[in-house]
Each structure stands twice: as structure tokens, then as C-alpha cells.
Amino acid sequence: MEENPAKPVSDQAASADEQKLIEAVQNGDGRAYGQLIRLHQKRLFRFVHGLVGSFDQAEDIVQETFVKAYQAIGTFRPGYAFYPWLSTIARNLAYNQIAREDKKESLEHLQEAGFDPESTQLGPLEKLLNDEAQGRFYKALMALPSKYRTVFVLRHFEDMDYNEISIYLKIPPGTVDSRLYRARQLLLEQLKDLI
User: Which residue of 1, 157, 160, 177 could cross-link 50, Cys pair, CB 3.0 to 4.6 Å?
Assistant: First the structure.
């Protein structure tokens, strides 16, 4: 597992209650882990879904993420926010899934299925899209190289600022800016008739 890619809790607004839950889990309390899952599962699902574009795959990856996180919870350093650590595990699993899919499926099979936009907090661009356009948007998003797609998802689905993305991905802020710009340009090229 990677080290916690985040700042200490005091810099991030993670709650004292979450820290108590983590300590309880590290001391063997399985029920406390269930509470951690409930705190983070929706946000984690949105993040993973944005990366892989498949409802079913996102569910599987989120479930696997929570299993792996539980197995590695002893390595989690107290005083840090839990979600960045958890989402790093999910991101790595999603990248592995994307790599497998790229080898065996064409882009046509990566069409979005089962996404409920009413249950997420998407940005203004996504909210404007109707059902048909939404399918095209996710198809175009899935066609982006993963380095551009990841930055786009972190910025627009996770509402991370450039500095947070830089820390999370361990890349300079300028690289975040250029990748986000390129992702938007590629999406605009694919969706220019919708905008």
C-alpha cells in the first residue's frame, strides 16, 4: 500500500469520530469498520464509477477496495484522513481493471449502464446533459487516456482543487493544470455538437 497521500487530519476536516472509528477497527472492532464503509461508500463509488464507467465494475471495485483496506488497516497512520488512503487503493484497482478491459474489449462495450445522475453531486457540465448526451459523455470520458480521465474525475466528480490533486497523484500542480486542460479539450472535441 502507498503511504497516506494526504495531509494530517487537522489540515483536512476529517472528524474526530472518524479517527475513533479507525482506532477501533485497528483494535479489531468489525462494527466500526461497517460505520467507516457507510461514511465513504457513496463518494468512493462516484469516484470509481467515473474512472471505469461501468456500474457493475464500480460496485465490484468498491467492494474489493473495502476488503483490501480492512486487510491493510494496520498500516494506516493515525492523524491522517482516511478517504484519500482508501481512494488510492480504489484508484489502483480501477487502473488494473481498465488495463484488463483495454486488452479484451472495444470502446463500444464500455458504454455506461445504470448510472443515476440524481444521486451524485456532478458539476454543471454533467448536469446539463440529458440521458442520450450523458451516454455520449461517458463514452467520450472512457475514451480519454487514463492520466487525463483521472485528473478530470478528481476535479469534477470529487471537487478536489489543483493542489489536492497534485498531492493525491504525486505530480506537480502545473501537470494537473495541463492534463485537466487536455482532458477538457478532448471532451469538447468529441461532444462539440452537444454544447
Answer: 157
- In this prediction, residue 64 carries a pLDDT of 94
Q: How many residues does the chain have?
A: 195
Maximum Cα interatomic distance, the chain, rounded to a whole number of Å: 55
- pTM summary value: 0.61
Rounded to the nearest 5 percent, the helix, strand and coil shares of the chain are 75, 0, 25
Ranges of beta strands (E only) in 108-195 are: none
- What's the CATH number of domain 1-105, 1.20.1250.20, 2.60.40.10, 1.10.1740.10, 1.10.287.130? 1.10.1740.10
> What is the C-alpha to C-alpha distance for residues 121 and 123, in angstroms, rounded to an integer?
7
Residues 156-174: pLDDT tens digits?
888 888 999 999 899 999 9
According to CATH, the topology of domain 112-195 is: Arc Repressor Mutant, subunit A (1.10.10)
> Does the pLDDT at position 118 exceed 60?
no
Question: Which residue spans of the chain are classified as CATH 1.10.1740.10?
Answer: 1-105
Domain with CATH 1.10.10.10 in the chain: 112-195
d(Cα 142, Cα 186) in Å, to the nearest integer? 11
Give the integer Cα–Cα distance in Å for 142 and 105: 12
Task: Quote the pLDDT of residue 11.
Answer: 37
Task: Return the SS3 of 75.
Answer: helix
Reported as a pLDDT band with limits 50, 70 and 90, residue 113 is: very low
